[in-house]
Amino acid sequence: QVQLVESGGGLVQAGGSLRLSCAASGSIFSINAMAWYRQAPGKQRDLVARITSGASTVYADSVKGRFTISRDGARDTVFLQMNSLEPEDTAVYYCNAAIRTTETGYFDTYWGQGSQVTVSS
User: Fold this and answer.
1) Which is it for the CA torsion 52, 97, 48, 72, positive or negative?
2) If we measure between CA atoms, which residue out of 92, 114, 97, 116 comes closest to residue 26?
3) Spatial separation of the C-alpha atoms in residues 49 and 83, rounded to whole Å
């Protein structure tokens, strides 16, 4: 009923930039927060950045000053601008959203399909 579709991943050299996007669609009543997580091989999935409906943001310490999360409410889309990429940023990046559906009226958590970001040295 609700889908989060990601795009923008790829392979870049260290110091380069990528912009991820995640578009939510389906029976959406409201979205109170959207976020990006990442998971490297053999590691747990960790929060990278989160933005609320009030546009407040939080970032992992490892990406502060390099990554920027933003949101387009009209399109139910969240972006992650990644600058000064490092090999340590290599991971699968997952979009996450807390969405109230028109069917249930309650918030549930949804995940995107994952986008591979590889930073070469």
Assistant:
1) negative
2) 97
3) 14
Residue type, 38: R
Query: Residues 6 or more apart from 74 whose CB is under 8 A from it?
Result: none
Give the model's pLDDT for residue 1: 85
In Å, how far from its chain's centre is CA 63? 13
Q: Quote the radius of gyration of the chain (alpha carbons, Å).
A: 14
Residue 62's SS3 state is helix
pLDDT in tens, 79-99: 999 999 999 999 999 999 999
pLDDT digits (tens, 9 = 90+) for 49-61: 999 988 899 999 9
Q: Within the chain, how many helices (H) and strands (E) appear?
A: 0, 11
3-state helix, strand, coil in the chain (%, to 5): 5, 60, 30
